[in-house]
Amino acid sequence: MTEKFDIIIVGAGIMGVASAYYLQKNNPDKTILLVDSQPDAGQANTAMSAAAVRNMFASTTNQLLTDTTIDFFRHIQENLRFNLALHFCGYLWLLSDYQFKDPSVQNWMQRMETNDISYRVIERPELQKSLPGLVAEFPDDEEASLMNLNPVDYALFGSECGVLDPSLLVQFYKEEFLKLSKIKPRFNLTVNKLLLEATPSLGLPGEPLAWQDKQVTGIQSSEGTFHADRVVLAVGPWTNALLDPVGIPSYVKAKKRQLFIVAASDHPQLEELLFTPKFSDAGFIPFTILPSGGVYFRGVPEEKSFWVGCGDKVGRAYKYNMESDDYNAERAYYEQSMYPVLIKYFPAFANIRPTNMWAGAYAYSVDAIPLVYEHSGVIVVTGASGSGIMKADAIARIADALYRDEKDAQLFGGRTIPSRSLGLTHRKVEIESVII
């Protein structure tokens, strides 16, 4: 079976489905086919996300991408009356005195002030009043010393940060896309390779030949061949698997990330921590990052639980291509690496086993800033470095502006960004240092 479309979008995660919406909205005469290997949109790495949103980044670029995206999410929920389960519970970085005074943290704070990113500094006495059961220092604790645990002296709190439900967010973009599109998405469809053809074709054996101009003209899939004038590739950690065979650069690599559910029900001290009201009107604990071990947790009041994760760095392998086993969560990792750190700072978690767990993958770029670029007929949208949800709206608008050859992408709220600034040849970004 062979069909022809104006645009084929490969990948219906949050960045793919948001791109589909803006491309259809701003190019209403174009036929757009959205495809994904999963049974529905947003069921791969988007569904595995901690689904937290923050504008507290160190780079001006990431601040702009996230700040405008979060503003749009607020607009969806408050003005368009589409529930995203968006709660501005905040982000809370717990820091030692040494960490707080580190030049990189001071520069981070200064750049947030310059770019009007809201945050405040909280010192230990207030933290101990606001976080039930927090252990802020470990005098004479040999075990804590061996574990390299930092004390808690300060925190940075961002009130314009929070959490949402990724399935509802994907549903919004998908429904808006379907209102505009005449083409039904194809799910359970595996893309085996991109089609690369000579332009123009001369009908010679072995085309495309080295001296010919070449362009990606579609996809070969489990349901046949589909041609398009342009292909948008939004497949995150699987980017290399599709770009490498046709020789197009991607500059991304993946890293496994895991989440573990710890129930607070029937554990009064843990439930008290979950529903601490001191930080926001949301009435539950902020997304909290501990000062040691990369451990963090998110409160989930609807299910009276915590999602606990770890942004481990050295020791966690980068993968050029993800394998099926990379999507299996490791209970032993929680028990041996995360749990010992967690209970030192918050003893209320002691002796409670996870009730569920899952794994996904971050697709990292070299500077931890997303990649949005066009190369040989493909618009590549990738490298969000674990923060695709919180940048998705801005990234999708940039992809659309690139398709329409617009100099600047118009982001929500009237701010703009050069449409090629996240690309390869005209890249103009800073290195991001605040990665979880």
What's the arrangement of secondary structure elements?
Layout: E1 2-10, H1 14-26, E2 32-35, H2 45-48, E3 52-53, H3 60-78, E4 91-95, H4 97-100, H5 103-114, E5 120-123, H6 124-130, H7 142-146, E6 154-158, E7 162-163, H8 166-180, E8 191-198, E9 214-221, E10 224-233, H9 239-243, E11 252-263, H10 268-274, E12 287-289, E13 295-300, E14 305-310, E15 318-319, H11 331-345, E16 356-365, E17 371-375, E18 378-382, H12 388-403, E19 408-410, E20 416-418
Parallel strand pairs: 1-2, 1-10, 4-12, 10-18
Antiparallel strand pairs: 3-7, 4-6, 5-6, 8-9, 9-10, 11-14, 11-15, 11-16, 12-13, 13-14, 17-18, 19-20
Please characterize this protein's 3D structure:
This protein is of the alpha+beta class. It folds into two domains: 2-50 and 168-250 and 367-418, FAD/NAD(P)-binding domain, CATH 3.50.50.60; 110-158 and 253-365, 2-Layer Sandwich (D-Amino Acid Oxidase, Chain A, domain 2). The protein has twelve helices and 20 strands. The protein has helices at 14-26, 45-48, 60-78, 97-100, 103-114, 124-130, 142-146, 166-180, 239-243, 268-274, 331-345, 388-403, and strands spanning 2-10, 32-35, 52-53, 91-95, 120-123, 154-158, 162-163, 191-198, 214-221, 224-233, 252-263, 287-289, 295-300, 305-310, 318-319, 356-365, 371-375, 378-382, 408-410, 416-418. The strands form four sheets. Strands 4, 5, 6, 11, 12, 13, 14, 15 and 16 form a nine-stranded mixed β-sheet that branches. Strands 1, 2, 8, 9, 10, 17 and 18 form a seven-stranded mixed β-sheet that branches. It has a two-stranded antiparallel ribbon with strand order 3-7. A hairpin with a 2-residue loop joins β17 and β18 (378-382). α1 runs parallel beside α8, α1 (14-26) packs parallel to α12 (388-403) and α3 crosses α12. The protein is elongated. The model has no long low-confidence stretch (mean pLDDT 96).
